[in-house]
Amino acid sequence: MTDLSRYGLTPFGAVPNERHMEWYRRGRTAFLHFTVNTFTDREWGDGTESPEIFNPTELDCEQWIRVLVDAGFTNAILTAKHHDGFCLFASEYTDYNIRKTAYKDGKGDLVRDLAESCKRHGMKLGIYLSPWDRHESTYGTPEYNDYFCNQLTELCTSYGDIFCFWFDGACGEGPNGKKQSY
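User: That's the sequence. What structure does it adopt?
Assistant: Structure tokens below.
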């Protein structure tokens, strides 16, 4: 940011701080939404989709990241878990995850694959972990907060540097559905 005081000027209105400027200098960020509902042709899953439908036989995280780098992106945020509750990582806290799929014979971990590709190409990795989970039975109870924090801890401690976590504030299924107090 230019120091306007040396020109005898005073900024008017909101002025970005150093964290704002760091975010600005970070460059372009791609948001990668790829999950079990990719195979149902629906924007959102409801948590009842069978993990068996998740089998991207030609998935290549290296190709994703190469294309993003070539397009000028410097960061990628992956939806590790969307509202349907399906995890693209091998969470110890739910069976509704990539281990229950045919992808890499149940040994795949898409978050790990993407994290490694990002590291190789100098791209920063971000994670979207939906706070709303339509599959998890404890959603809408105080116990869910522990469940969510456990999954967040798994992601924080298993995949190297993560430049941001994206939370959208989703917390319910409408006026007659479950709501979560975070």
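The helical segments are 18-26, 61-70, 110-120, 142-158.
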